Amino acid sequence: MKARVHISLKNGVLDPQGKAISNSLHGLGFESVLDVRQGKTIELDLTDMSKETAETEIDKMCQQLLANTVIENYSIELID
Amino acid sequence: MKASVIVFPGSNCDRDLKVALAASMDAEPDMVWHGDSELPETDLIAIPGGFSYGDYLRCGAMAANSPVMREVVKKAQNGTPVVAICNGFQIATETGMLPGALLRNADQSFVCKDVDLLVTSENNRFVGSFKQGQVVRFPIAHHDGNYFADQETLDELEGEGQIAFKYATQSGELTEDANPNGSLGNIAGIYNKAGNVLGLMPHPERLISDALGGTDGKSFFDNLVNSIA
To answer: What is the ipTM of this complex?
Structure first.
């Protein structure tokens, strides 16, 4: 089973990289961009297990290591 | 007195910290490998600065989960003094020993210079002879030193006198210009609630002799050692 974990900074937490990307996009003429937030994606390759078990397991991984819940949100996407 | 310096792969200030501590103590500190699951008998634990595990994932995230840190957290909970500098500060927040987190510097750039710091805590057990309101000068060198915590935590830190140092002007004013990284409240260093864990972004170990440009760092370690010995 494969899974993706998406991690992004919480709203209200300053994201200087997102700001820099936003400025660059404006420089290229993409005026439609109102704001940019940069995050990261972590791909996991897991042994076969039920979706429920996988979600519980990955949630634990996020809490313990993959995300810093003081400043980051995360979401889990399971891919068959 | 015995001290332990934790050694992580990638850290580059562990030996500076050892030299600084040895100059203020009458013994060399033990260098403890991150993979060890036990700490030697120790009166002080020092967590050094410098890109542990290459800053992969998040600064301090991997180091915070290394075997030796489980012991460090346990000792800290039992009252052993811990000083955590720069990447060490990031590691200490990642373990939960200190509240908040260190974000990328607000202007995106790596900063490396000497800064002035206002001593802000009156019950600063580690910096005994530094007086509240005094300005000291330490170097900084970091990319992720932008201290962040939610408002409730910030209020608690202020209310409980847990803020040790704030970035300031030479005359001690807390201006935006004096803040090198965007830290909330100009925060450069904090204590935990019990007062035995100090985390700070500046590097006192880099200013321990006139030959290096100053001695405020030497005073810092002298005070630290005197407060424990």
So the answer is: 0.88
